[in-house]
Amino acid sequence: MNAPERMWRALARRDWGSVRPQFHRSAIIERPAAAERLTVDEFIADHREHAARGDFEIHVLRSLNAEGTTIVIEARAGGARCVGLYDLHDGRIAGAVEYWVPPAG
Asked: What are the residues facing 29 on neighbouring strands?
């Protein structure tokens, strides 16, 4: 299992302590649709906040490995969907771009 899959599975378990080791310390997570650039701490805090609100069950729908350095994950979090592009360095996430689609309706 690769770092993005481990990260998403840790998010699903709400195992916040297992999320951080999947990232390089200086990693930035970009969310272009929301004009956000998050540090790892901000990323974890954002997921903790959403999880605390209730319906935030996470399911990894698919994972694609592109040449071992880029992993693509499609996931569902509550009613929202995410496609994330995760760049790896030394087996950990060095940077990411996530595209989120909010729940319909």
From this structure: 38, 96
